[in-house]
# Entry
Amino acid sequence: MTEKIMDTIKELKEKSKKRNFPQTFDLVISLKEFDTKKPENKINEDFPLPCGRGEEASVVVFSDTLKKLDGKILSTADVEVLSKNKRSAKNLVKETNFFLAEPKLMPLVGKVLGQFLGPKGKIPKIITGDPNNLMKSYKRAVKIRIKDSPVIQCLVGKESMKDEEIAENIKAILEFLETKLPKGKTNIGKIFLKMTMSNPIKLEVR
# Structure
């Protein structure tokens, strides 16, 4: 599988025009024999890429007890300030990839930001275990989400990364989906790889 993925990455790079910014690689998967109307098929997973995203994801933590963490921390007072400024609240949700929270702050976060977090599938995950390890994991994560259409699209790396790293990330996502989808491999239809400004190329892994 890895060899075929590597060939597709090379082909995509050769066919894509050089841009003056590092483009992202996106994996696009169409699902078959898959009913999005079934509640159990509404997948919303945060998946840490084995080789990272090429740049760290933005993570915000809601906490009154954590003071030192390699990421942005918002306290109860900060959230209450956001409650008075809907534009700032909306922008925070738009600009942040993932949210983490201490259990006791969840009711307030839900009240103030729920209307913005819910539709984007960004409801905060409860902090469990070591917050620093959790933060490291989320900084290399991507969201794998299936909502209303049977298609998954997610970032798998950046142009600045090695081909081998991007291939490893793609392989990891495909293997994860085989365990997560109700019919495993059978649910995976056509697979495409694209860059930010390129046309998609079909990825043959079977």
About this structure: The CA atoms of residues 27 and 193 lie 5 Å apart.
